[in-house]
Amino acid sequence: MNEVADSTLVPSALSRPYRYVRLEWNAEFAMLTVRMGVRPIQCYSLAAMAELQQLFNDISANPGLIRHFVMASDVQGVFNFGGDLSLFVLLVRARDLESLRLYARRCIDLVWWWETAATLGVHTTALVQGDALGGGLESALLHHTVIFERGAQAGYPEVLFNLFPGMGGWNLTIRKCGHAVANDMILTGQVYTADQLLRRGLVDHVVEDGTGAAAVQDIVRHMEPRFRGVIAALQARRMAAPISHENLLAIVDHWAVTAMSLTTRDMRLMERLARAQVRKVGGAGEGAVEEIKRMELDTAWGFERTGLSEWSTLT
Amino acid sequence: MSAFFMELVSRTDEARREFETNSRVLDIVANGLNLERYRKLLLELYHVVWHFNPTCAAAACRITDQHRDVRYFLYDHMNEEKGHEEWVLNDLQVVGVSGEQARAYEPTLVMLGLNGYNYWSADRRHPCSVLGMLYALEVVASVYGGQMTAAITESLLLEGDRGISFISSHATLDAEHLADLRVVLNKIEDEPAQAAVIESTVFNFHQFGRVLESV
């Protein structure tokens, strides 16, 4: 009996016993879909980052094996919440600048792989089917094509606790939609709907909830006949609007130094976000995104009207 | 070679995250505790605090001059922690448990296991292992203690620090201790001592998660 090759079997060169990433393979398009699943709170934990780095190393070591890389989430309702807030709090409280800098530089190693993927002949797509905050949004914007399902929301809440997105947020947002939008997003900490992000040019496609995977297939299918041209054009795009590794490292070092100056109040706000997300995992209807909106309202209205803020009770 | 503190953070990160994502821990952070469970948590914590200094002392008397910095660190730390069991007793009093009842309480088997391991490790494994206990407990207190304090205060309608002074104050105090602990951990350069600290940290995160499950 003839054996039929399984077109969904992940190539052995990429197959490893990962714990936090699940790989899907589509042989027709040489498309690798990476579904990240750090539970219960989806974030870039040290272990998940180590697995991603291993996967990136394997892809780089096997040029031509994949043409399309798709990043998605295995966690319902969340694309990624970015950095591991508890780890940040731990390192800031331990006043360990060097370790925080090391964590940040590991992030930049990942950022740089995504940023240079076209030079490996790989087209990258972010499929955002849930909320993306901070580093989660930065990692989505690193992809050549960014697809949001309509129910997904995203933003950079870092300024709410006196920090800023340090892993390419400024570079990527400015490159994609200019200084005005980047200023607005990063300096207000506001959370945006998928349609608002589309209007600002940050997102390439918004599709209905549940149709994201099919949309990726459509985009890839249409791109296939002109794939080599697309890759060459994406390489040229980097030349036209370069982001340098040196610049990313300089910003992330500044980020780490800034994080060291966070106060107890700032960290309590971070904890408040983390706690909101934990409540959502536990079945509550509202999570971190709703908590950020409450913080925005608190700033915009509560303080102005009363001179008091819920935050002022945090010491 | 990176400093040992970073290596400790990296190599025990999975254990920390397993503690953080333990369903019972998540539930406490999200919803707090009812009165009965909070009483039981404090009764269990009393045994952590009561055995903390004797464990440190057991380690300190076995530490050789090679690690004299660790020994001096433990002296200072013991002095700071002395009497903190009274804070637990005061909180218990507020929630209706007398000192006599607290002292008569028999800890759970998982608590006996936690204290038993820490004594054994200081005695038979490596006295520097006690720093793993300190690291795990200080991370639990300073990283998660604030969230737990807020949730328990809300769930029990407590006012200010009344009834929650032990957890609340350690959330702040241990943040300062963590910075001091990093300095002393970075002075540990020999492999056996480092391995013992890592093992102890992993065990303490694991077992403290079980303790919270038991309440």
Which features would summarize this protein structure in a list?
heterodimer, A: 315 residues, alpha/beta, 2-enoyl-CoA Hydratase, Chain A, domain 1, 11 helices, disordered C terminus, B: 215 residues, mainly alpha
Q: Would you give an account of this structure?
A:
- The complex is a heterodimer of chains A (315) and B (215).
- Helix content of chain A is 50%, strand content 14%.
- With 315 residues, chain A is α/β, with parallel strands linked by helices.
- Chain A has two domains: 21-260, 2-enoyl-CoA Hydratase, Chain A, domain 1 (Alpha-Beta Complex), CATH 3.90.226.10; 264-313, no CATH class.
- In chain A, helix 3 (97-115) packs antiparallel against helix 9, helix 4 packs across helix 5 (169-188) and helix 10 crosses helix 11 (288-306).
- Chain B has eleven helices and no strands.
- The longest helix of chain B is centred in the middle third of the chain and has 27 residues, at 130-156.
- Chain B has a single domain (4-214), classed as Up-down Bundle (Heme Oxygenase, Chain A), CATH 1.20.910.
- At the A-B interface, helix 2, helix 3 and helix 10 of A face helix 1, helix 2, helix 3, helix 9 and helix 10 of B.
